[in-house]
Amino acid sequence: MSKDAPTSLGRMLLLVGRVALAAVFLVAAYAKLKPQGAMTWSPASVKTSLAMFAMQVDSYQMLSVNAANFVAHALPPFELFLGLWLLSGIALRFSSLISTLLLGGFFTVMVRTYALGLEVSCGCFGPGEQLGTKTLLRDGALLALSVAVCIGAFLIRRKPS
Amino acid sequence: MNLKMHSVHWRFLGSICALFALAVVVLGAEWISPARAQAQAAASAKQPAKTSAKSAPKAAQAEQVGPPNKGVGSPSAPITMEVFSDYQCPMCGQLFQQTLRPMINDYVASGKVYLIHRDFPLPIADHRFNWDAARWGTAAARIGKFEEVDTTLYDNVRAWGADGNIQKFVAGALNPADFKRVQKLVAGCLAQTPQEFRPPVQAGQGCSLDAYINQDIALGKQVPVQATPTYVITKRGQRMPPGSGFVSWPLMKQFLDSLLTP
Fold first, then answer.
1. Helices vs strands, H then E, count in chain A
2. Which of the residue ranges A105-109, A136-140, A152-156, B53-57 would you say has the lowest mean pLDDT?
3. How much is the mean pLDDT over chain B?
4. Backbone angles phi, psi at B85, to 5 degrees
5. SS3 content of chain B, % helix, strand, coil (to 5)
6. How far is B25 from chain A (nearest CA, A)?
7. Which terminus, N or C, of chain B has the lesser number of Cβ atoms within 10 Å?
8. ipTM value of the model?
9. Hey, are the CB atoms on B17 and A17 less than 8 Å from each other?
C-alpha cells in the first residue's frame, strides 16, 4: 500500500462530502424559492415563497418581525451562493467553515425550539415540514458532514500530496 | 506514525460520509411522505361539504338548525384560510389575539380573506375542557353565532380553563334567546364540564355536535395537522403548504398581500 493511498482516498471522500454538502444547500435554497401551490416561476411567486418562509422563521419566536423578515429574504440567496461556492471547491476551508457555522447555528436554534416545546414548521427544506426528532437527526448529521468536510479541507491544506 | 494518523483521519471522514448517506435516506423518506399526504389531502379536501351533508346526524336535522358554519367573512373572498385549533392551546390563543383578530378586522372585513375555524382538540391532560369548548363553538355555529362565541372562548380561556364554566361566557356573548338555543344544542354533549355548570338535559336527548367536530379532526388528519395551530391557505383553489405555530400579523399580512398581488 503506497503512502499516498489514504490521502487520495481522503481527497475522494472530501470531494464526495463537498459535493453532497453543496447539493444540500442548493436543494434548501431551491425549496425555499420554488413556487408554492400551482404557481409558476415568476418574481411574484418568489416573493410569495419568501413571504411564506418569513412566517416560518417568525414561528421560531426568536427574532423581531423585521429581523425575521430580513433573515427570510437573505438566507435562501446566501444558501444558493454557499452551495455554488462549495461546489466550485475554491477556498474550501473557508466555504466549509462558513457552512459549519451556519449549520451549527441552525442546529442550535432547532434544539432550543424543540426543548421549549414549540411546535413549528422546520422551514429547513421549504414549507410543510414539522420540526421533530427526525429533522433534528437529519440536521445533526448534516452538521457532522460539514464538520468532517471542514476538517478534511484543513488537513489537505496542511499535508499537500 | 504519520501514515497511521492519516488513516485514522480518513476513516473518520469515511464514517461521517456513511452517516450522511443515512441522513439522505431519512431526508428522502420525509420528503416523500408529506408530499403523498398532501396529494391525498388535496384530493379529499375538495369535498368537505359533501361529507358534512352525508354524515350529519339525523337528530340534528330534526332540530331545525343548519350544519355549523364556522366561517367568518365572505365565502367568495379570493383567499380562504382554515385554522385548525384547540381552544386551550396557548399558541392558538396567541395566534387568535395577535394575528387573526387584526386580520378579521381588516382583511376579512374587506372581503379579501374568508377565515374558517376547524376544531382540533388535542388529547392533552391539561386541556380539560377543550372538547366542551369546541362543542359550545359548534353549537353556536349551527345557529349562525359562531364569531361571537369563538371570540369569547379565546378571550376568557384562562377563566373557563380553570373551572370549566364555559356557559357563563357564552351567555355573556349572546342574547338570551340565542343562548337558550345554543344551550339546548349543547345540553347532552358536555362530558368534561363539572355537573354544576352543565345545562339541564331533557330525557332522551343525544349529542349531535361531536360528529361535526370529528369531521374537522378528520380533515385535519388529511392535511396532516401535527400540531396546533395549523393553518392552510388557499387562493382560488391553489392550496399552499400548511404552516403551524404562531405568526405575527405583519408577516401574515405580507404573505396575504403577495397572494393578492396579481
1. 5, 0
2. B53-57
3. 81
4. -145, 155
5. 60, 10, 30
6. 9
7. C
8. 0.86
9. yes
Binary contact (A52, B243; C-beta < 8 A): yes
Instruction: Find out whether B181 and B144 touch, Cβ atoms under 8 Å.
Output: no
pLDDT of residue B38: 42
Contact B241 A128 (CB under 8 A): yes
Amino acid at site B230: T
- Listed in sequence order, the residues at least 6 apart from B225 whose beta carbon sits closer than 8 Å to its beta carbon are B84, B120, B242, B244
User: Whose grid coordinates read 444558493?
Assistant: A80
Q: Which of A7, A36, A157 to mutate to test the interface with B (most CBs of B within 10 A)?
A: A36
Tell me which of B240, B257, B260, B261 to substitute to probe the interface with A (most A C-beta atoms closer than 10 Å): B240
**Secondary structure (3-state) at A87:** helix
Closest-CA distance of chain B to residue A7, Å: 7
Taking contacts as CB-CB distances below 8 angstroms, the residues of chain A near B258 are: 44, 47-48, 51
Lowest mean pLDDT segment, chosen from A71-85, A89-103, B161-175, B191-205 = B191-205
Cβ atoms of residues B13 and A9 within 8 Å: no
Distance CA B237, CA B240 (A): 9
Here the cell at position B183 is 344551550
The Cα–Cα gap between B70 and B73 comes to 10
**Strands B79-85, B113-119: pairing kind:** parallel
Beta bridge mates, B243: B231
Q: Which residues contact B203 (CB under 8 A, 6 or more apart)?
A: none
Contacts of B14 in chain A (CB under 8 A): 9, 13
- Give pTM, 2 decimals: 0.79
Q: Which three cell numbers stand for residue B75?
A: 365565502
Whose CA is closest to A34, among A122, A105, A128, A120?
A128
Number of A to B CB contacts under 8 A, please give it. 149
Contact B6 A65 (CB under 8 A): no
Contact A26, A83 (CB under 8 A): yes
